[in-house]
Amino acid sequence: MDASHKPINSESLGMAxxxxxxxxxxxxxxxxxxxxxxxxxTDNQNQLMQKLAQEVLTVSKEQNDxxxxxITCDLGADNPLEVYGVSFGTxxxxxxxxxxxxxxxxxxQKTVAVVVLHNHPSTQTFSIQxxxxxxxxxxxxxxxxxxxxxxxxxxxxxxxxxLKKAAALFNExxxxxxxxxxxxxxxxxxLSFLAKSSEAGIYYR
Length: 205
Known about the structure:
The protein is α+β, with helices and mostly antiparallel strands. The chain has six helices and six strands. It has a six-stranded mixed sheet with strand order 2-1-3-4-5-6, with helices on both faces.
């Protein structure tokens, strides 16, 4: 999808991000990242996704003070873990496209996985910003959120994925939000989208 075409309500971008206290990553959290059976993935791909989730936690712990990090890789590459893009964020957010290699993989490859670390107890699953990114830049394979405690959630487009329905559902969920909307309302908006995501052909776990 062309980034200049934005069917999604942009007002949500200005919403205040009120977060609770950051959780620092531990080796225990890294080691306990589960082996998830991703919908439609092979055993090898599932194992690769587990390693990517562990890698995003490790990179954040060792190189970014447990702040947010995003890894973007091409699952179709011969060795996906050898070459991947890394975007380093702040305590509250990360821009996946800020990294040149991440952006290149995102727009040029067919089997893209984006793994985003969230580091607050209030961000255990996808935020409104994550969902907007998933829709607007048409993540081609899977988008994963990993918490600092090793919890995993993911979104994947199914064969019946409908971009127009996804954008309309997003707009419906955020239409009552304001720039100063309480965190609870913003969180409920994201949960509302996730609960209805299958209507647009999106698999959520």
